[in-house]
Amino acid sequence: MTSPLPPSSAASVLDLAPVVPVVVVSAAADAVPMARALVAGGLPAIEVTLRTPAALDAIRAIAAEVPSAVVGAGTVLTPEQVRECGAAGARFLVSPGWTDTLLAAMHGSGVPFLPGVSTTSEVVALLERGVREMKFFPAQAAGGTAYLRSLAGPLPQARFCPTGGIGPATAPEYLALPNVGCVGGSWMVPADAVAAGDWARIEELARDAARLARPARLRDAGGTCR
């Protein structure tokens, strides 16, 4: 990512919380209570994926009504979507992969972005272009913690948000790696809880996820994650 978050936030979305909820919003009316529950549980960064017609309205509603949330857009695939998400109030962008065209659009948006990678060559190509923070996707299928651990030696300047197949049991293994800032997942927003409007359950699941803190050895005395 090449653009910082506002001064009121951490310097990077990777440092806001150990887990970024990756949510699919089918009904825009669910967006605000869901976001409030996640924030109350300690997960302020929320990635709303562009997989439903309600996604942009959900981002717009969260940006307007939940100021303590840092709402972002996921599954961003085109420059047009970059523009639409920025207009809706997205404060960060996430893509499952990248091209030079998409990368240029995300860079030009003025908000932080996490382009997706799954190979060493993609990581090197992004580093060459000045991008040091990336989404590792699909994490489990692409090699998981063993793959990321192998990258830490030759490419220590790259930091990742692994997403894809990660749950509460495996998240701590990723968070223990020196090149992982946070993980993405959706286990704290189960479909049945959203359908039932059980925001208390989502808040509790978010609170459990927020407790998956990064190891103390990765923090300095001021609590900054390194």
Walk me through this protein's architecture:
The protein is globular and about 45 Å long. It is of the alpha/beta class and 226 residues long. Helix 1 runs parallel beside helix 9 and helix 2 packs parallel to helix 3 (79-88). Strand 2, helix 2 and strand 3 (70-74) form a beta-alpha-beta unit. The chain contains nine helices and nine strands. The strands form three sheets. A four-stranded parallel sheet has the order 3-2-1-9. It has a three-stranded parallel sheet with strand order 6-7-8. The chain has helices spanning 31-40, 55-65, 79-88, 100-108, 120-128, 144-152, 171-175, 191-196, 199-210, and strands spanning 19-23, 45-49, 70-74, 93-94, 113-114, 116-117, 133-136, 159-162, 183-185.
